[in-house]
Every structure is written in structure tokens, then in C-alpha cells.
Design a protein that fits this description.
Layout (H helix, E strand, L loop, with lengths): L11 E5 L4 H11 L3 E6 L19 H6 L3 E5 L5 H12 L3 E4 L5 H5 L3 H7 L4 E6 L14 H7 L7 E2 L2 E2 L6 H24 L3 E6 H8 L1 H8 L18 E5 L5 E5 L3 H10 L15 H6 L1 H12 L4 H10 L3 E4 L3 H5 L2 H5 L3 E4 L6 E4 L23 H7 L4 H9 L5
Parallel strand pairs: 1-2, 1-4, 2-3, 4-5, 5-8
Antiparallel strand pairs: 6-7, 9-10, 10-11, 12-13
């Protein structure tokens, strides 16, 4: 039984957003109970709507980042459109934008301008490289930022650097924007004032590079790319199994190596063999170490390999595909899937990771069609129906 409201119940967020970083941030706010009004272009809306058609005709990025929002289609280049959005912002607690460098300021929608006019407003500018500096004007797509921050240099195999398989820079910036809003709401609760918040993709991902960054900055050698292997621990890699799967295992100390040798590899003599008995020796002879593990796991199915490793107390994981994640027994056992309504019908989506026992479950609201809530939102602002029809006829709204 729910005894508390969701944390952001009663908070209104207005966003002028596109792609992933800002939409991901505001979706977190919607999941916590905030009302999120998403302002989109009348001619197509958020361009992430057109990335693909994988979600039964809808774009997978858009479905992921935009559930639970109200879509209002307004032309911000038209003064009448800007006036409507200005009225929305005047009643909001939070404003978030990630327009191209300089675009928000030209529209009067940058954080500094809005916070000067509305002292209680929390206004977030999400940018690629920050508001100044030699890179401020550059386009900052996720893969470009992964390259500039060095993430790509430490990801991949010795012969091939690769980008992360998820938009790591966008997600990092979205999460820092989200937590920045929460912190600013706490501050407003004690001071009564909002204020600007700045987050950039570059700064966010540079922070996530903390381990290799500090390792290299203080005289060490930046970590080598080792694929799924660990640079200084062996065995720590993925190994093929007899049924065509792969199982990753990690031996953290020499006691674990003994258990692995005796109870999984069926080669107890390797426990005390000087060529294998210590981690330093196993790393120095990594090829022989990996060959011994691969020979044993190659005779087992993935299920049997995991069963034996678990029984021996060895950390392990299946190298799952995305399809296998969808069917993952842990998600099923914890009832993590919910249907989310959309213009093409219900779509399965995961509950947000943060759970508030005693509060209602995250609302998991509908993925909106472009302009689905324009009339409702403008009506709530007091815009008369004839004016709404006139604005639509003029192309100011959709």
C-alpha cells in the first residue's frame, strides 16, 4: 500500500530537447512523478523520432527516452510560438534545453536569461562542450565525444579501438543533468531560489574516464585495450562453451585459482604449479592460463559451466545478447517489465532502476505522438479555442 507520493509529484518540467541527453534526463524526472511538457518542432518534432522504426514503427531511441511526457508542437522561430513557450516556462519549476550552441540564447531560452526573469526556476543548459572554450561551437554527437574524451582509446581489442555500444556520452550528460535538477530542487527548498545548471557531454564523459585519466595523469601508462580480458588479472576473460555460447569468469586471488583448478578445470595439479599458482605468474603466462581454462569450458555447455563456477564460488557471467537480456530470468523474477502505451499500442519497457518502497510505482506514462497534447496544454494556459485554430492554420503549432 502506498503511503508516500512519488518524490517529484507536483513538479512541472518544460523541455526544449532533442536526441538523447536532455530527453533521457527529463524522462527520469517523469518517472519520479514530475509533469514533463516536451516542446517540439511542428515539422517533424524531435529528430530522434526519425532515427529508426524498430519499435513497431516508432524510433527505439524516442520510445526509450520519452515515455510519460506531454508533446506540444510549437514553432519557436515565430514570436507567437516563443510567447506561448514563455507562458509555459513562467508556470514551471524546471526548464531543460539542449539546442545547438547559441540557439537557446538567440531565442531567449538560455538558463541565465530565464532564471533572471523567474527567480524560482531551475533552468538547465545541456551542451556538447560547455558554454565557452575553443570547442564550444563544435557539433558534439555521442561518438565524437567518446573519441575526444579518450573512451574509444581504452575500449576494444589491442588491434582495434571501438566506441561504446551504447551512447555513453549522452547517457552520462543526461544523468548529470537529472541529478543536477534534483540537487537544485533541494537548494530551492532551503533558499527559495532556483538558478542555472550547466552540463556538457564532454565534461560528463571526461569524469567517467576517471580511472584511466588519473592513471595516465599521474605518471602511469594508460590502460591497454584488452577486449574482454583484464590487463593485470588472469584468468579474467570470456571463454567459448561447447554449445556455442561464451562464459566470462574472473579469478581475483590465488585461493580462487585453486578452487577453479580443482573443481572446474579438473586439474588440481595447476593449483601449486609455479607457472600458475600466483596471479603474477598467470598474467606472465596468460596464453597458457587461458588455454587451460578454455580447454575445460569448451567441453561444457554454458549452463553446466555456470553451475560449476557458481558451486566453486568463482565470479562468472554469460556473455548475453540483447535478445537474451530481454528474456533474462532476473528481470522476469523481479517483475521488471511493464507495458507502456504509445501511438502504436503497448510496448514493453523496463521499470526505472530507482525504487521508492512505500511510494507508488513509477507512472510509466504514454510515449506521445507529435503534438498530441498541444490543444490540452494551450487550453490550460487559457488560450481560447479560436486562437488555437488560428495558430494551427498559420503553422505556429501542430
Amino acid at each position: 500500500m502506498s503511503t508516500q507520493p512519488l518524490p517529484l509529484d507536483g513538479i512541472t518540467v518544460v523541455s526544449v530537447e532533442q536526441a538523447v541527453a536532455a530527453p533521457f534526463a527529463t524522462r527520469q524526472l517523469a518517472d519520479l512523478g514530475a509533469r514533463v511538457v516536451k516542446v517540439e518542432r511542428p515539422d517533424g518534432g524531435d529528430f530522434a523520432r526519425g532515427y529508426d522504426t524498430a519499435a513497431r514503427g516508432l524510433a527505439s531511441h524516442f520510445v526509450w527516452c520519452n515515455r510519460g511526457k506531454e508533446s506540444v508542437a510549437v514553432d519557436l522561430k515565430d514570436p507567437r510560438g516563443r510567447e506561448l513557450v514563455g507562458r509555459l516556462v513562467a508556470d514551471a519549476d524546471v526548464f531543460v534545453q539542449n539546442l545547438a550552441h547559441g540557439a537557446a540564447a538567440r531565442l531567449g531560452l538560455d538558463a541565465a536569461t530565464l532564471c533572471a526573469a523567474h527567480p524560482r526556476l531551475i533552468a538547465v543548459d545541456v551542451s556538447g562542450y560547455g558554454p565557452d572554450g575553443p570547442y564550444a561551437h563544435r557539433r558534439a554527437y555521442d561518438m565524437l565525444v567518446q573519441c575526444e574524451t579518450g573512451l574509444v582509446s581504452v575500449t576494444g581489442t589491442p588491434g582495434q579501438p571501438v566506441k561504446s555500444g551504447i551512447p555513453a556520452a549522452d547517457i552520462a550528460a543526461g544523468m548529470y543533468a537529472y541529478t543536477g535538477v534534483l540537487a537544485a530542487l533541494v537548494r530551492r527548498g532551503t533558499t527559495g531560489r532556483g538558478g542555472p545548471v550547466e552540463v556538457s557531454l564532454f565534461d560528463s564523459l571526461a569524469e567517467w574516464m576517471g580511472h584511466p585519466l588519473h592513471h595516465g595523469a599521474h605518471g602511469g601508462t594508460p590502460p591497454a585495450r584488452t577486449g574482454l580480458a583484464h590487463a593485470v588479472i588472469a584468468p579474467y576473460d570470456a571463454y567459448p562453451t561447447a554449445d556455442g555460447s561464451q562464459v566470462l569468469l574472473s579469478v581475483q586471488n590465488d585461493r580462487e585459482w585453486r578452487r577453479l583448478a580443482e573443481r572446474v578445470l579438473d586439474r588440481p595439479e595447476l593449483a601449486d604449479d609455479p607457472a600458475f599458482a600466483t596471479n603474477a605468474a598467470r598474467v606472465a603466462g596468460r596464453a597458457a592460463t587461458d588455454a587451460a581454462v578454455a580447454a575445460a569450458l569448451g567441453t561444457l555447455s554454458a549452463d553446466e559451466a555456470v553451475r560449476r563456477l557458481d558451486a566453486a564460488g568463482i565470479a562468472c557471467a554469460r556473455l548475453n545478447s540483447v535478445t537474451e537480456l530481454v528474456r533474462h530470468p532476473q528481470l522476469a523474477a523481479r517483475d521488471r517489465w511493464r507495458p507502456v502505451d504509445s501511438p502504436v499500442g503497448p510496448l514493453p519497457s523496463l521499470l526505472p532502476p530507482v525504487v521508492f518502497p512505500g511510494a507508488p510505482e513509477a507512472p510509466m506514462g504514454r510515449v506521445p505522438a507529435l503534438g498530441e497534447h498541444t490543444d490540452t496544454v494551450l487550453g490550460a494556459l487559457g488560450v481560447p479555442a479560436p486562437e488555437v485554430r488560428e495558430l494551427r492554420a498559420a503553422g505556429v503549432i501542430a
